[in-house]
Amino acid sequence: MDGEILRLEVPAPSASHPGAELVAFYRDHRLSLVRLAVLLVGDLETAEDVVQDVFARLHGTWRPGVTTLAYVRTCVLNGSRSISRTGSVTP
Asked: What is d(CA 44, CA 65) in angstroms, rounded to the nearest whole number?
């Protein structure tokens, strides 16, 4: 192991994996959703929490082809508004 670099690579989920579409959607849109949340809450860590909370809630209700980016953006917007009102991420 002298001078070796170990890399941990997470394989992309296969199409047969039940959450594969959600994982791909997360990879494609997470950054833009975090940026939106940062504009609304003014804090990177809180924005990441909002987006993570939205995806955690979507995990059980995700419907490929039905759940749209516009819907997820609305969820991030509402989550950010909730933070602005209460000052904390909803449990």
From this structure: 30
Amino acid letter for position 62 = W
3-33 CB burial, b ≥16 within 10 A, e <16: eeeeeeeeeeeeeeeeeebbeebbeebeeeb
Asked if residues 55 and 22 have their Cβ atoms less than 8 Å apart, the reply is yes
pLDDT above 80 for 13: no
Q: Which of 60, 25, 33, 29 is nearest to 49 (CA)?
A: 33
Model pTM score: 0.73
CA distances to 5, 28, 40 from 73, rounded to whole Å, are 39, 13, 12
